[in-house]
């Protein structure tokens, strides 16, 4: 989180003079975009009732997601490229990009309901703006892992790429030139005008998430640990 926050400060300071137009976020690890938050860290802080520590982590996540959605408050258009599993916080992070590209074999979902928690660092904010509150809540409560194709049909994934072609699709999009850039940047600005996203909204929801997390039972925490163990061996 600290590295990403430092990066966005750098981009904010240099974007105007450099003429930077696009920022692309992807993973170098085959098959995995991001497996979400640090569940072992969550468990440790919940067991010790370290509310402040958990909130600091969560607010840092919100900081990254908000500024990604805002293009770092610069002319930059952000593009997320998912080429593997994006679960929990990984899916939240992917949704924060202005444009989401995903390869067909990618799997994305919010499994937090498995340990009686909800995803609290942007999911409700991003999903509700894409598909409405009712469908967003059903998705969160289902815990279902979706294919990229399913999310494309729902309007969450913007560009669906064949496996191995995600990077080529991103390059093709960027190669569309200045006219395409201006169109999509204008659409991002229009969305923000119609349904403004604020950092305060993300932090307020995170506060609710922290309080909910602090109420988890030992049974819930053991489920979280089992999920963390499965993730660590992927």
Please give a structural write-up.
The protein has helices at residues 2-18, 39-47, 51-69, 89-95, 123-131, 133-142, 148-154, 166-174, 177-194, 199-214, 218-232; strands spanning 22-25, 31-34, 77-82, 84-87, 99-103, 107-109, 145-147, 159-161. α1 (2-18) packs parallel to α3 (51-69) and α2 runs antiparallel to α11 (218-232). The chain is an alpha/beta fold and 234 residues long. The chain starts with a helix and ends with a helix. The protein is globular. It is 58% helix and 14% strand. The strands form 2 sheets. The protein has a 4-stranded parallel sheet with strand order 1-3-5-8, sandwiched between helices. The mean pLDDT is 94.
What features would you highlight for this structure?
234 residues; 4-stranded mixed sheet; alpha/beta
- Work out the radius of gyration: 17 Å
Percentage of residues in DSSP E strands:
5-15%
**Major sheet summary line:** 4 strands, parallel
Instruction: Give the H and E element order.
Output: HEEHHEEHEEHHEHEHHHH
The chain-level structural class is alpha/beta
Say how many strands there are: 8
Low-confidence stretches: none
For the terminal residues, how far apart are their CA atoms? 22 Å
What is the strand and helix layout of this fold?
Layout: H1 2-18, E1 22-25, E2 31-34, H2 39-47, H3 51-69, E3 77-82, E4 84-87, H4 89-95, E5 99-103, E6 107-109, H5 123-131, H6 133-142, E7 145-147, H7 148-154, E8 159-161, H8 166-174, H9 177-194, H10 199-214, H11 218-232
Parallel strand pairs: 1-3, 2-4, 3-5, 4-6, 5-8
Antiparallel strand pairs: 6-7
């Amino acid at each position: 989180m600290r590295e990403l926050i430092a990066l966005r400060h750098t981009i904010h300071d240099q974007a105007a003079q450099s003429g930077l137009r696009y920022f692309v976020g992807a993973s170098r690890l085959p098959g995995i975009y991001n497996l979400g938050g640090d569940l072992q860290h969550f468990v440790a802080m919940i067991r010790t009732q370290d509310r402040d520590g958990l909130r600091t982590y969560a607010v840092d996540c919100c900081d990254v997601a908000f500024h990604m959605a805002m293009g770092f408050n610069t002319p930059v258009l952000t593009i997320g490229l998912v080429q593997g599993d994006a679960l929990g916080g990984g899916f939240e992070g992917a949704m924060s990009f202005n444009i989401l590209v995903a390869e067909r074999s990618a799997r994305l979902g919010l499994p937090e309901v498995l340990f009686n928690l909800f995803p609290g660092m942007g999911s409700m904010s991003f999903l509700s703006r894409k598909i409405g509150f009712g469908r967003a809540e059903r998705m969160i409560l289902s815990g279902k892992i979706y294919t990229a194709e399913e999310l494309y049909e729902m309007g969450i994934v913007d560009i669906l790429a064949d496996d191995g072609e995600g990077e080529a699709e991103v390059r093709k999009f960027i190669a569309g030139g200045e006219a395409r850039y201006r169109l999509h940047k204008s659409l991002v600005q229009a969305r923000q005008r119609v349904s403004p996203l604020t950092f305060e909204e993300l932090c307020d929801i995170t506060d609710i998430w922290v309080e909910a997390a602090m109420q988890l039972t030992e049974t819930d925490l053991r489920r979280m640990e089992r999920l963390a163990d499965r993730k660590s061996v992927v």
